[in-house]
């Protein structure tokens, strides 16, 4: 997706016959519900926006940096303007959408409107992206530091390893095992069994002898585990201390 997000705007006075100067064929959408699976989210956005005209493309990413965001491309800026005006603030999956115009055209729009030059456009876009990375201030500083070290005759320092990004517990994919944290120190397996057996298909509760504040709860399927997780997350087991419940790491 080549479209770049623009800064969200407070309001847009636009009509189909007179789109604002900054209008483009692609809308940049923020504040989407991050718990919804990407395929379901894209299908919902396409179903919502097709009422305004042909939807050329809907792009949403799974990576953490782009979670809760999407791009929707139309055949014209007039259609996009009308859709923005009427849909902005619509509560999709209980979260009001923040919508603005993307700064640049998406690949889908360029391919539709200027198919003969699409490959040239794509090459130019990739080259701009490469130059932007090369001119990144942080990378420029690192290159200058290595060059100075080489000029002094010192061996250049190895490039720092990029730290591994660990998926936050809240974004782990659903599975049939729940991970409980922040449990009261005096909690018992029987108490957890009684609590989680309120929800069907409970298989077992596993305590950790050396870590009294955590435990694992397993159901026969991930759907049952999800119901229990949603119902009991932040539940005050002892009346004071909220327990944290996420899906376990596989």
Automatic annotation (TrEMBL):
SMART domains: RRM. Pfam families: RRM_1. Residues 25-104, 176-250 form the RRM domain. The keyword Repeat applies. GO terms for molecular function: RNA binding. Transmembrane segments: none annotated. Keywords: mRNA processing, mRNA splicing, Nucleus, Repeat, Ribonucleoprotein, RNA-binding, Spliceosome. The keyword Signal does not apply. PROSITE patterns: RRM. Residues 133-146 have a biased composition (Basic residues). It is found in: Nucleus. InterPro entries: Nucleotide-bd_a/b_plait_sf, RBD_domain_sf, RRM_dom. GO terms for biological process: mRNA processing; RNA splicing. One of its GO terms (cellular component) is small nuclear ribonucleoprotein complex. Its main location: nucleus. Residues 1-20, 133-164 are annotated as: Disordered. Belongs to the RRM U1 A/B'' family. This is RRM domain-containing protein. It comes from Botryobasidium botryosum (strain FD-172 SS1). The lineage of its organism: Eukaryota, Fungi, Dikarya, Basidiomycota, Agaricomycotina.
